Every structure is written in C-alpha cells, then in structure tokens.
Amino acid sequence: MDDDEDEDLMLPRKKRDDDEMDITPMIDITFLLLIFFVVCSTMDPTKIGTIPEADNGLAIAAKNAAVIFVNPGPNDSVILSKIDSSEFSRDEDAQANEIIEYITSELEKSLGASKQHVMLFGDADVNVGQITRIQKIIGDAFEDLDATYIAVKEN
Length: 155
Description:
- It is built from four helices and four strands, in the order H-H-E-E-H-E-H-E.
- It has helices spanning 2-9, 24-40, 92-109, 128-141, and strands at residues 66-72, 78-82, 117-122, 147-152.
- The protein has a four-stranded mixed sheet with strand order 2-1-3-4.
- Helix 3 crosses helix 4 (128-141).
- It is rod-shaped, with a radius of gyration of 31 Å.
- It is found in: Cell membrane.
C-alpha cells in the first residue's frame, strides 16, 4: 500500500509549450554588451571633429575684440598669434598663461568700454579640439566675458 501512495503523490511536470521562448538570457547579454561599450568608449569631444563651415554670422569688428589667430601646426598642434603677428609660445602651459595675459591687456586697453569679447580667427584645417582647448582657457580665466567668437577662414 505504501507504493501506491507514493505514486499518487507525484504530480506530473507541466510541459512547456513549444511556442514559448525564454528571452531572459538574451536581455542579459544585451545589457552586458551595452555596459561594455559605454565603459570602453571615449566621450571626449575634443579629440575628433572639424570646425564647421560658417554659413552666416554676426558681424563683429576686430577693433572691438581681443583677437587671436589660430593656424594649423605640425601633428594637430596649432600656432597662435596676436593681432600684431607675434606668436604665442608653442608649449601649451606657457601658451595658456600668455593667452590670459594678452586678453587681460587687450581688455584693459579698452578700459571696459568697447572690448568685452574675444575673437578666434581659425583656419578650416585646425582641429576642433584645439579651438575647444583655447575656449576653455579663456572661459576659465574670464568668467565675466560677454562672448567668444570663432571666425573660420574660407579656403
């Protein structure tokens, strides 16, 4: 009688329909791949890109701005020069200090009346990362500056 009772207690397993599919492993793999690509990708916009072509823009007189000329140099570097054609240092740390000094002196010449923005004259072949680096130097040093304008030379 014990054998009959054991057989009665065992319930049959429910068969899974052939039409159903468990997608949980596929979702897990998708999220793992997403996490992998987010961790491995670089999000630095200064490393890629080119300066966009100017369609039209606001006319800004160079006499009313502190002007810096940005020309392409070797190995994605830039050659910066002042409005009087004298060049800034090629060393980036020294260059940052010279940019700050130059803009400070240009803004002080105007006695705060007319020069309240900076103009970067860039060549179309200049790496956009270099323009971004120069803008960051200017923005960090001169928080009260009205605007920084970028002018792109047409080829």
